[in-house]
Fold this sequence. Notes:
The protein is an alpha/beta fold. The chain has two domains: 149 residues, no CATH class; 130 residues, Rossmann fold (3-Layer(aba) Sandwich). Helix content is 40%, strand content 19%. It is built from seven helices and ten strands. The strands form two sheets. Strands 1-4-2-3-5 form a five-stranded mixed sheet, sandwiched between helices. Strands 7-6-8-9-10 form a five-stranded parallel sheet, sandwiched between helices. β6, α4 and β7 form a beta-alpha-beta unit. α1 packs across α3. The longest helix has 28 residues. The protein starts with 6 loop residues before the first strand and ends with a helix.
Amino acid sequence: MSFFDQFLLTPTIHTPKRDNVQKCVEEFVSSVRRTLEERGMKRISLRLLRPLYLVITVDKKEIILIITNKGAIAGQTRWFYYEHKKEEPLGLEDAKALAITYCGFPPDELLIASIPASLADLSTAERGEALKNLANEYIEFELQEEEKARRKITINPIFKGRGFLLEQNLCFVLMPFEQRFQPIYEDHIKKVIVEECKMKCMRSDDIFSNREIIEDIWEYISKARIVIADVTGKNPNVYYELGIAHTVGKEVVILTQSMDDVPFDIRHLRVIEYTYDPRGARKLEESLVNTIKSILKK
Length: 298
């Protein structure tokens, strides 16, 4: 079976150019198959040799193949052909946009390859060596991509909870469980977040469940739109939870009563320094409101 026999639907308009391009692509795929056999790699699963949807664009410079395997079922796919007749080449990015916009290809699951357009005008014998070189380049590319996929690190948190939904109006606060921080939280942080920023404000002691407390903290950090962390006193629990928030990509506002409590490697981040006295508390409230409103505008 030839490469193009796999498609259920094909372009209806035939032109001499299209016929030459189609034959050249067919020979390229055949060269890939032969090269695999010669290299003793017949079992490797290349994307080009799986069921696929295909867009072929051609201009004066190159033949571009855009492939997706997503949703492809053998014998149930189609291919598209676009002949770019303008003087300026179409280019890879415009060809990709065409496949995504007009053919519905998924932007994150594409394979793009190109063949010099001049090869379409040569005979099978004349272009054989060039197609073999391209086939080797393509196979090497796929092998490298496969190796990257094998080595790719997958983040797998030790926490049990998964699939949390973001709560756009939730602000979660991390701070030490010490009595001296209670009025700072209740009278200043929570007060302005609720009254001025119109958000829900919670701390881990506002959560009532029978789970391990770290599981609750993991859940609410994950669900929160904004996380506030008071690192005053270098509390290890707060820093552990701050690391979680940074790892999951949260907008974090760091508070401290002393910059000496902020490690050098995170001092470049958003930090509000405050003193716990009437003037310092007012400044904390103002800075917190301005910072949160700025984040919410993003």
